[in-house]
Each structure stands twice: as structure tokens, then as C-alpha cells.
Amino acid sequence: MLISDLLLLAAIASSEPVVVLDIANARSDQVEQAKIGAARSGWWLEMGDELVVAGPQARLHSQSGLPMLRSFDGIDEANLVMAGRGCAEPIEVGRELASSGRWQLREVDPDTALPKTDAHLTIRPFKRNVVLARQYRLDERVRGAADPQIQQVVDAVDPARWFGDVTTLAGYDRSSFATTGLFAARDWIAGRMQAEGLVVTTPNFTMNSPGGSITRQNVLGMWTGTVTPDEWIIVGAHYDSRNANANSTTATPGAEDNASGCAGVLELARVLVPRQ
Q1: Counting Cβ atoms within 10 Å, is residue 98 exposed (0-12), middle (13-18) or buried (19+)?
Q2: Is the dihedral of CA 246, 247, 248, 251 positive or negative?
């Protein structure tokens, strides 16, 4: 037998089928059983709404009541990487097998030069049998009666008011590299926080832009407690936005990215502060 034949056989032996299962509405026992079964002869990776299982018996797990999203043949574990992106262009290295938020499990040809890790893209070695993101529904338990004080806060949340703030913020051009619209949004948020009784500051920070280093401001609304004033809980969202191209300076309303989060921070202040 030729050396090339031996290498081919070795490659085949190291390859295995991979199945991606939908666990968005799964029970915790279903997920755990699938993971245990996969670990016996292969591996698994839990990624929020998706569970990746691999090995000779991988396709059997799709018969456990968990819907199969996609399947792949001949996947070599040595060719897998975890790719995470922030505000960057779509990840183009290799092919995507599964994803969770901004992390993706990708298969990359061993001869491919991986892009450098920077502020917008992170490439990490693949690790088997790891929970990358936990689907919170799996941990639901039988609930007792709601705490009356907490229920008052929950009932005070006003969806229409929340959506109104999203609409207002989406009316500003909040490009990170623009000025007038971004600064107007900054001042509007600061005013809303002050109206709710928070102590507001707008500290400077520097960031890179197509034209060089620029100075922008965060908006901090502080509410000091009386029982544990030295303990911090941080609730945050970013009020700037961007287009598909990271260097674009055209209008960026960013209702989802991330006016909705900013509006949520403001609504939380409205319902919490008055009730101490």
C-alpha cells in the first residue's frame, strides 16, 4: 500500500458525521441525554439554541425528539475553529456549521491562513464538550407565587413608552463617526436619566475612526442604594450605531442596534427608582 493511500485512510478514520440539533424548545433531560450519548463515541458543543453532536452515532440523536437543523459528513475535528465577531464584516473563513450569537463553529481547510485576531474578530481553537451558551429555558423550574414587590415593578413596565423611546432614538443619526446626531442622542439620554433622579455624568473616551482617533462620551446614570451602597449592578446598552460597512459615515438609525437596549435601560430606571 502506498503512503498516499495510508494518509487517505487516516483522514477518513479521523472524519465523522456532525449533526446540529434545534434545542430552542427542548427539555433539559433531552439535551443532557443527547450530550451523554454523543460523548460516548464522539463529542458535543452546546451553543444556546443549537446543540452540535458528532461521532459515528450522531444521526441517531436526531431521533430523540430534537429537530435536526443541518448535518455534515466527513468533518475532521482538527479542522474546526471558533470564530467570534464584534462590529465587523461577516466571517468568511471556511464554512459555518453552527452559531450562537456572535460565535460560530466553522470548518477551515488546514492550508488556509487564518485572519488575525483583532478588536472585531476572534479566532479560538475548538474545544469539545463545552457549553458555549446556555439556553435559559432549560433551567426553568416550578415557580411559586411571585414576590409582590417585584411584581409591582414588572407590572409598571410600559411597552408603549419603551417603544416610544426606541422610535425617538432611531430618529437620530447615531453613527459612531458622526457628531450632531450622536451628540443629540447623548444629550437626550442624559436628560431622560436626570428626569428619573439619576446622577448623570458623560465621561470621555477615545476610539479609532476612518479619519484617526476621535473623542466620544459614555452616558452614566448612577443610583446609590441605602442598604448596600458599595455593591454595583451595571445595566448597559450602546447608543451609537453603524452600517454594514464598519467605516461608513452615512445615517445609522440602529433601532435594533441598539436603541432598543438603550430604551430598556431607561424603562428599567423608570420602574425601579420610584419603588426603591
Answers
A1: buried
A2: positive
Helices (H), the chain: 3-14, 28-41, 148-156, 159-170, 180-195, 260-272
**259/87 Cα distance (integer angstroms):** 16
Q: With beta carbons less than 8 A apart as the criterion, state whether 64 and 52 touch.
A: no
Question: 73 vs 23, 55, 56, 200, 261, CA distance in Å?
Answer: 21, 10, 10, 56, 40
HSE toward the beta carbon, residue 47, CA cutoff 13 A: 26
Nearest partner of 108 among 94, 126, 127, judged by Cα: 94
C-alpha cell at 80: 474546526
* Distance in angstroms (rounded) separating the CA atoms of residues 110 and 94: 10
Give the amino acid at 271: V
Quick check: pTM over 0.85? no
Beta bridge partners of 205: 216
Contact assessment for residue 251 and residue 175, using Cβ atoms and an 8 Å cutoff:
yes
pLDDT tens for the chain, residues 1 to 276: 544 443 333 343 467 899 999 999 888 888 998 999 888 889 999 999 999 999 887 666 555 678 999 999 999 999 999 998 766 566 778 999 999 888 899 999 988 888 887 767 788 999 999 998 887 776 666 567 889 989 999 999 999 999 999 999 999 988 888 778 899 999 999 999 999 999 999 999 998 887 889 999 999 999 998 899 999 999 999 999 877 666 666 677 888 889 999 999 999 999 999 987
